UniProtKB/TrEMBL annotation, chains A, B:
Residues in HTH merR-type domain copies: 1-70
Protein name: MerR family transcriptional regulator
Pfam families noted in UniProt: MerR_1
Keywords: DNA-binding
InterPro entries (alphabetical): DNA-bd_dom_put_sf, MerR-type_HTH_dom, MerR_fam
Signal peptide: none
Species of provenance: Agromyces aurantiacus
The keyword DNA-binding is assigned to this record: yes
Length: 204, 204
């Protein structure tokens, strides 16, 4: 298809598509003349990814580039690449000072209680620390019992997610990034609606 | 305790505590002289709630007042009050036009598949619609199978939450508001860490 059809299919202005081409975020089309090129479904899929990252996921073009580079070159250690890709998603957390003896005490204790690996380099550890500290600070600390209950349900949910990881490395990075960022609001909305459903059965 | 001790215990400047008193968000202390009053744990607890609502929860003082009013006067229909309180939390969603025949088609279909009540007046329905549409738009629609899997886990999680609802109505509103808003970041961080845990066992 021509660039105008590609832009229309992706729901983007032609100027935006040209910008992504110039920036190297979108691969070039096949030249059909000195001034024209043709585009296919790989371009459309890429534009959908860029649009999701810079739209609902909330990344800047530069932040999206970090993730697109990992999609393009997943390398040999897919586990490390997936971790880096997820760490590039919001919320951005400041890394702990290198000399802090125990930078994330709440998160460390929680992961020990859950029997999960504690690795302070992983961005979600800092995120968990902030969240647990805020709950405690409001006089609503997460009890050990609640932590175990939540942890069990979320581990099952995560096992479902990983059970559907595509085999192809580039697709695996895309799935992990979008499945993390775009499914989070779905999960939060479903939790609130489940509250309503349980409350309706018990209270009304 | 004196106002200075109260402010220190709540981690707030005295001027902020005085502002909340003037605005009626914080109840007056017991007067001990024409210019002094004494405060107790009910004041400290209230300040912790206000601080959580205007801090990590991210509400303006006016938005926090809506929730504080529901805490103060939960009324006779606690189920409706809890729904109103949760609807006052972020993310703010625009109400559907009154004449829209089917404003939330994705959310309606999802809740039907889950066997849950679909009530378009509930704010989390609009939130679910936006989230499901964004996933579809990115080429990653939530499959029926995934929806059922997520729905089952989140229903169990919500049943735990409701199982710990305090009996006293004011405490129930506080618990519902803070347990919704402050535990959401905990849940998202735990999901990301569960991904890492499952992936580490399978891939590395």
């Amino acid at each position: 298809m021509r660039i105008s059809a590609l832009a229309a299919a992706a729901g983007l202005p032609v100027a935006t598509v040209k910008f992504y081409l110039r920036e190297g975020l979108l691969h070039a089309g096949a030249a059909t003349s000195a001034t024209q090129a043709t585009y296919d479904d790989t371009h459309l899929r890429r534009l959908r990814l860029i649009r999701a990252l810079t739209g609902p996921v909330g990344l800047s073009v530069q932040q999206a580039r970090t993730i697109l580079d990992l999609v393009d070159e997943p390398g040999d250690d897919l586990y490390a690449t997936l971790g880096r890709a997820v760490s590039a998603l919001p919320p951005q957390t400041a890394p702990a000072p290198a000399d802090a003896p125990d930078p994330y005490p709440h998160a460390r204790a929680a992961l020990e209680a859950l029997g999960q690996v504690y690795d302070p380099r992983f961005a979600a550890v800092a995120q968990l620390e902030t969240a647990l500290a805020a709950a405690e600070d409001a006089g609503m600390p997460i009890s050990r019992d609640r932590l175990i209950a939540y942890g069990r349900q979320l581990h099952a949910l995560a096992a479902y997610d990983l059970g559907h990881l595509p085999d192809e490395p580039r697709a695996a990075v895309e799935y992990t990034v979008l499945g993390t960022a775009l499914y989070e609001p779905v999960i939060l909305a479903l939790r609130r609606l489940a509250h309503q459903d349980v409350a309706a059965r018990r209270m009304s």
